[in-house]
Specification:
Blueprint (H helix, E strand, L loop, with lengths): L4 E8 L5 E2 L5 E2 L6 H6 L3 H4 L1 E10 L6 H14 L5 E5 L5 H11 E2 L5 E4 L12 H14 L5 E5 L2 E4 L3 E3 L8 E3 L6 E3 L3 E3 L14 E2 L7 E5 L7 H8 L4 E6 L14 H9 L4 E5 L12 H9 L2 E2 L5 H12 L5 H8 L10
Parallel strand pairs: 1-4, 1-5, 5-7, 7-8, 15-16, 16-17, 17-18
Antiparallel strand pairs: 2-3, 6-14, 8-9, 9-12, 10-11, 12-13
Helix pairs in contact: 3-4, 4-9
Length: 337
């Protein structure tokens, strides 16, 4: 039998970095071919191909780069049996989530990975992660975007980086990981499987970046909401407390600011800073006031996922009712409940 064909798309990040003479790490110093030199056994797993797309520290990654990646995957999707994207960890979940919304019901796996240390460091997790990612791309019945890190397979829209230094940087929140990479790959069975032609997969690369994600803190000034409205932001994501709640009393109440925004046709989504939980807006009276003011609950969506989803939706419609309707739809299992 012929080996599966796998494409590695390199986007820079620490995984391709090296130590400079002054002692700091510079990202993006190697191309994707370096993975094949460091881990030659990859050629035993698959027929390997590489492509250097972008060479950036991921903190400098922009939504326009997400679109560039989506176009590159679209160009190559019919030529390969799986695609691996190497990326800096700092914003990996945003890029992976954007691709998940722009490219749905995929015929092949799209697997993101990165590393805490450059690939030539003795204690680096880079080699382990790239080998595991290629195995997943080559061998799994997987038709969605995932993140492979520390031998775990995470759904892109349900994972978050919780650790800054440790190799188990990412965790699945609200669901179990899709699978584990050990001697063999063990899938748990709740992954989206490859679209084998039962219908055409979705390719909808549309984004509008005029979305503000606002993390609330005690004493947050409601007047700051007006700043975003004056600068013509088209949607606001308020990252609130507990079940996604915001201040509703005294001079720090956000109720009036939310009403002003919704009356102007600017949707206001409320999400939570918490890592786990189902956010029922009307569980407390605070939530009832939010609903009456026109706020929309992100339910159990991760706020980063809600942020990217809003960008994607706004790229398709500017109609208020249309935005609200599309936001409440579950596209890629970004909502569990």
């Amino acid at each position: 039998m012929s080996k599966p064909k796998i494409l590695i798309i390199s986007m820079g990040g620490t995984i391709t970095g090296k130590m400079l003479a002054k002692g700091s790490i510079a990202s993006g110093q190697y191309g994707a071919e370096e993975f094949l030199r460091v881990a030659p056994e990859l050629r035993q797993v698959a027929e390997m191909h590489t492509l250097e797309l972008i060479n950036l520290d991921s903190v400098d990654m922009l939504p326009e780069n997400w679109l560039q990646l989506a176009d590159t995957i679209q160009t190559n999707i019919s030529k390969f049996d799986g695609i691996v994207v190497t990326h800096g960890l700092d914003t990996l979940q945003y890029t992976a989530t954007a691709i998940a919304f722009m490219m749905q019901d995929l015929p092949i796996p799209v697997v993101f990975t990165g590393a805490q240390l450059p690939i030539h460091f003795v204690a680096s997790d880079a080699r382990q992660n790239i080998v595991a990612a290629v195995q997943v791309a080559a061998q799994c019945d997987l038709g969605e975007v995932c993140v492979v890190s520390d031998n775990l397979i995470h759904r892109a829209v349900r994972c978050r980086r919780l650790k800054a230094i440790e190799t188990d940087a990412f965790s699945s929140l609200g669901i179990n990981p899709l699978g584990t990479v050990r001697h063999q790959i063990e899938m748990r069975g709740h992954q989206q499987k490859r679209n084998t032609g039962r219908h055409k997969y979705v390719f909808n690369p549309s984004l509008d970046t005029k979305v503000a994600a606002i993390t609330l803190t005690p004493g947050f000034d409601p007047e700051l909401i007006n700043v975003y409205l004056e600068r013509n932001y088209r949607a606001l994501l308020l990252i609130g407390f507990g079940l996604g709640y915001v201040p509703t009393h005294n001079r720090f109440s956000l109720i009036k600011a939310i009403q002003v925004a919704t009356e102007r046709g600017v949707p206001v989504i409320v999400a939570s800073q918490a890592n786990f939980g189902h956010y029922e807006m009307e569980f407390y009276e605070v939530g009832s006031q939010l609903k009456q003011a026109g706020a929309i609950s992100a339910r159990d969506m991760l706020w980063e996922t809600a942020f990217v989803k809003l960008m994607w939706i706004l790229g398709q419609t500017q109609d208020y009712a249309g935005i609200v309707k599309l936001f409440q739809k579950n596209y890629v299992m970004e909502m569990v409940v």
